[in-house]
Amino acid sequence: MGRAASIAEQVLGIESSCDEMAAAVVRSGRQVLSSVVSSQNDVHAPYGGVVPELASRDHARVVSAVAEAALADAGVGLESLDGIAVTAGPGLVGSLLVGLSFAKALAYRAGCPLVAVHHLAGHLAAAELADPGLAAPYLGLVVSGGHTALYRVEAEAEPRLLGQTLDDAVGEAFDKVAKLLGLGFPGGPAVSRSAQSGDPQAVNFPRPMAKKRGLDFSYSGLKTAVALEVGRRGGLAKMSTADVADVAASFEAAAVESLRVRVRRALRSEGLDQVAVVGGVAANRRLRADLAATGDRDGFAVSFPPPELCTDNAVMIAAAGARLLGRGESDGLGLSAFSRVPVGQTPWRGESV
Ligand code: KG4
Ligand code: ZN
User: Fold this and answer.
1) For the chain, does the N or the C end have fewer beta carbons within 10 angstroms?
2) What residues are paired with 26 via a beta bridge?
3) Whose CA is nearest to atom 14 of ligand 1?
4) pLDDT for 268 beyond 60
5) 285 C-alpha to ligand 2 centroid (Å)
6) Omega before 137 within 30 of 0, i.e. cis
7) Does the beta carbon of 148 lie inside 6 Å of ligand 1?
8) 243 vs 198: CA distance, rounded Å
9) Is residue 321 in contact with ligand 1, taking CB distance under 6 Å?
10) What does the CA dihedral 188, 92, 319, 149 come to, rounded to 10 degrees?
11) Residue 250, CB half-sphere, CA atoms under 13 Å: how many?
12) Whose CA is nearest to atom 7 of ligand 1?
């Protein structure tokens, strides 16, 4: 229809792809009117990881209260919404379906358009919302519990995948190492906290894929190396808090180093001078400090959203959805959830994955 690119005014975002149920209202794709995140740490902590069935049940319990709170905090009624944006994948299907079904019902009642958002496109949108200086083309590093990937982000085209993990995601490695070191759940922040009092050079863990060219990642070998180190020290029971901190710090240093090396490589090979780091692991202090220092030295700009926009939230979904709606895109109420979806694909619209 030749509609000029614009941004939808008031959008409610709903995110439920994993263990966070979140809702937020964003104005003009940039101004955050409200953001509510209900996390399930207490539900999953006894199991040391997310239990999908428990996640979706808890989402169903809180979804309506979370959405109501987001609307109330924003002072926005259903009738003044210009659209509802919801994560349709990738993620845990049961969890996604709760947010999706609720969003459909709400869009029907509000009589406003509904638009499906790709979870990783949402994470990237958080970077642009948080840093108005960030302008495409730039490098996007997505580091979360389910993903470790580098993208070239373009202004008009879909992000192009440059490299990704061949096995575990980096956040998953943090979570597994936390379990090995008895540090609890969620693992990333726990490992990071313990690492602060440890010596990052105490154990010379292998730098994942150090000798491999290209932009792919691998974290399962590093996780195994941590397990072997714990065994070498006679098991967790024989390790002091200081020992655990040393192993945590050495693991964190190796994990961050592999991200840093690939970011530099990708910036060089793509001829880019700015990188945005998004996803839960972008909240990691060491990653933030090391990449910022490398950027200062090598002359590239590093953009990190504030920690609350790094981990799963609905602000990023509303912001990404506002753009889609502004371009005149929307999805019908037949929308489905998908567990695996490459960035740039929209299987919820009927195309093949
Ligand atoms: O983006 P996110 O909230 O959910 C997914 O889409 O996966 O990312 C969650 C992941 C978890 O693996 C968590 O342990 C990790 O991010 N994480 C961290 C930190 N905060 C969260 N990893 C390292 N350091 C942190 N400070
Ligand atoms: Zn995420």
Assistant:
1) N
2) 11, 32
3) 188
4) yes
5) 18
6) yes
7) no
8) 8
9) no
10) 60
11) 21
12) 145
What is the value of pTM for the model shown?
A: 0.91
Q: How many angstroms does the Cα of residue 174 sit away from the middle of ligand 2? A: 15
Q: For residue 115, what are the β-bridge partners?
A: 85
Atom of ligand 1 nearest to the CA of 144: 8
Say if ligand 1 is within 6 A of residue 90 CB: no
pLDDT of 4 above 60: no
Residue 37 Cα to ligand 2 midpoint, Å, equals 13
CA of 172 to the centre of ligand 1 (A): 8
pLDDT at 75 over 70: yes
The per-residue pLDDT of the chain, averaged, comes to 94
Is the beta carbon of 312 within 6 A of some atom in ligand 1? yes
- How many angstroms separate the alpha carbon of residue 109 from the centre of ligand 1? 34
Q: Is 168 touching ligand 1 by the criterion CB < 6 Å? A: no
Q: Which of 174, 191, 192, 308 to mutate to test the pocket of ligand 1 (most atoms within 8 A of CB)?
A: 174
Closest among 136, 152, 162 to 216, alpha carbons compared = 162
Question: Predicted confidence band at 157 (pLDDT cuts at 50, 70, 90)?
Answer: confident
Q: Does the beta carbon of 277 lie inside 6 Å of ligand 1?
A: no
pLDDT(296) > 50: yes
Which residues have beta carbons under 5 A from ligand 2 (an ion)?
144, 312
Q: Rounded distance, CA 337 to CA 315, Å? A: 20
Rg of the chain, C-alpha, whole Å: 20
Task: Give the pLDDT of residue 3.
Answer: 40
The answer, yes or no, to whether residue 185 has pLDDT greater than 90, is no
Query: What percent of the chain clears pLDDT 70, i.e. is strictly above it?
Result: 97
